[in-house]
Amino acid sequence: MFRWKTSLLVGLLAVAALAQTPQIESEEVDRVGAHIACQCGSCKESVRCPMSKHGCGFCGPAKARIFKMQKAGMSDQAIIDVYKKEFGDKIYMADPSPFFWIVPALVIMLGLGAIYLFVRRYSQRPRVLASLPADPSFDRYREQIERETARLE
Questions:
Q1: Are 49 and 59 in contact (CB under 8 A)?
Q2: Domains along the chain?
Q3: What does the pLDDT look like over 29-87, one tens digit per residue?
Q4: Residue 42, Cα to own-chain centre: how many angstroms?
Q5: 87: which of 59, 65, 71, 143 is 20 to 30 A away, CA to CA?
Q6: Closest CA relative to residue 46, chosen from 56, 36, 55, 54
Q7: Is-contact 55 93, C-beta < 8 A?
């Protein structure tokens, strides 16, 4: 009977713990957490990193704090400002610049241009050289070559 009560208690505690997780793992918390850098030292990502589910010492409590601040009615920028004031400007992770994609796009275009030039250059048919004007000094050599090749047959 004691075992049954203990296992029931553990089961209820597990359900209660899991019931609180979806609130912290919400889209609103991740939206703010994307701008706050994790300070645990091993993941080098934002607070919405997957380590928060596996025992990161910073991400889990930070998500819970963000959730509490959002429930208190604070705006996203106000929450970020609180973290900046507490940890300094190094904690803020800005959105990537739209110019971030220019470098890969330019590299791809340069590569495609190089491939196009290579294919265009080596896919052309070989040009036929114009026949050289007959030189009378070569006639003697041609006759000798023809005589020697006739002896071979």
A1: yes
A2: 2-91 (1.10.8)
A3: 888 888 888 887 767 777 776 655 556 777 788 888 889 999 999 998 999 999 899 98
A4: 19
A5: 71
A6: 36
A7: no
